[in-house]
Write the structure tokens for this entry.
Amino acid sequence: MARFEITLLGCGSATLTLRHATTSQVVDLRDKLYLVDCGEGTQLQMRRMHVRFNRLNHIFISHLHGDHCFGLPGLISTLGMLGRKGELVIHGPQALADFLRPVLAVFCRELPYPVRLNLIDPRQHAVVMEDRSLCVRSIPLKHRIPTCGYLFAEKPSDPHLIREMTDFYRIPVKELAGIKQGADYVTPEGDVIPNSRLTHPADPPKRYAYCSDTAFAPEIVPWIEGCDCLYHEATFIEADLPRARETFHSTARQAAEIARRAQVKRLVIGHYSARYEDLGVLQAEAEAVFPGTVVGVEGMKLSLDEKKTVLPAN
């Protein structure tokens, strides 16, 4: 089972089509689920892709345009009908409160679980949420209204014990925690067994950056530099650059340029304008700048541990 996986639920932009769902995706880190944006129909996509609702405790909203948040009221209500008890935390810009509090007051007065809003300043690159395995930071983006992306950074894991060696030296269970933290082992006879003989290094921690929606913004490069995977909006092709500038969106080529400058390991594009039936034109423009660009589609799973992309079944 992958430790760090992203499932794309929706890769379309504001106009609904039969080709694409609106923006949403699920980050799965060690079986804890984090929802990123929640466009209309998100919970239906979660059903189609067998996402386990009960493992979702945090939702991150990039901005208050409908294609990124209109699915929230329905999802909040459904979680209540499923018998949820634990707290749900929704992170997002200040306008999130103006949108959700009336909805909660009118439609969700008898929810069996608490909803907490963590209102953030999308203009700041700051820690939004942190637990034992993950730190999430905001990435200020350049859009028509206050907008931020999110950087999901896995925390380092403890080294792996070499069971054959701990058994060979008959190391007591009470000593194992210290060894995992880097301690050597001293035998009853006083011999020092170096930690390197008892453990394998942990897998390097992974980082995933989510950037949608934004105009071309080179200033974000230092915050996402070297990350294992970047999801960047690619709403338009270069021929429609004037429209991209007018609406504060990016072209596929601009998304690839951000990935190239940041030297990320993998680029995934999405948030396509409804005007393009053939995504090949977007892929070709991105590939010319960042070879190996992945064209995101609904149902795609991205494993950061194995650098593997699983395409949805037809």
Summary: The mean pLDDT is 93. The first strand starts at residue 4 and ends at 10. The chain is about 25% helix and 25% strand. The CA atoms of residues 185 and 191 lie 8 Å apart.
